[in-house]
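New to this. Help decode both lines:
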Amino acid sequence: MRLLIVSSAEHFGGTERWASMAIAELERRGHQVWMACPDKAHAGNFARAEHLWHDGPKSMWDKSGLDRMAAFCRQHQIDCIVPLSQNMYFACGRLARKLGIALVLRLGIVRLPWRPVVDWYGYGIYPDAIIVNTQRIKQVLSRAPFVKPERIHVIYNGIVERSATGVASQPDKFTITSVGTLSWRKGMEHLIKAVALLPHHLREKIHVKLIGDGPAREKLASLATKLNLADQVEFTGHVENPTAHIAAGDLFVLLSAQEGISNALLEAMNCAVPAYATLVGGHGEFIEHGINAYAARSRSPSRVASDLAGIMSDDNIAAVGVAGRDTVRDKFSMTAMGDRLEDVLNLTKKGPAAKPAGPDHQ
């Protein structure tokens, strides 16, 4: 098939990372895939720069951009459009309907559609299929009266093996890493406050490494300074291979208020690094507290501080990391993700060539 994936994100985040993995796997299987995206957000993050297209619509109301996308689809004989963000579902749906091609939404976060008309058409009328990466997202999305549950397909994220070397560890420190766009949704401010609440003998051992960039960076840095942690909280900015930083750490922490399934969390677990994460989105579908990861039941800094103190003294911490690696390699392979993507895409084909998709990934 010939696919156009559409992103309007200004930062390269988890959804865009999923797109890069999906493109690589689908192209390996013989499909042709293009990516419509802002240049500054995505250049350098995809293997085939010639398949990136930067002249698409900036919003659902950008008529000239949508006209350019229509011309692009005709020129490249696109079979299916795959928008990644809610603000493009409606516009891409109208365009797909106009061109007579398929529309497959990809939703990676728990969200209940509510906007009249725009979501009714965007989620309910236009799409041939909706891909989500957790059972939880499917359950919530199915509550919308205009969404057809039979069109929602759960495909767990695959995990790409990347180099876990190149960054030196600090043997005299307990290094905590956290990865993601520096925004308040990721909860990094709660981590900084929690470290400040630890007893002195634990606090002085900790080095926090925040990997990524985003709008909250200056405020987070100011918070660290205010709490006398400026020398213990490191901001790496965007790095090409965050896995190497994660693998050199002692604990991966993700205190997000909202997620689908975090790619960074999977990468940490795949490196056998113990992980401590909120049970948002689909995390509760595979995290077993104290067995293959640690569950953050609250983002309250006092509760997080208490949990961190317990994790640092857990004699079983290394075994938890190894069990986490086994979980990821069992449930989140790229082969399984590619098989399910092909099944769903085949459903959107017009005519008798289409074949039924397999059961939802359990």
Remarks:
- The two ends are 26 Å apart (CA to CA).
- Residues 14-28 form the longest helix (15 residues).
- The mean pLDDT is 91.
- Residues 173 and 205 are 5 Å apart (CA to CA).
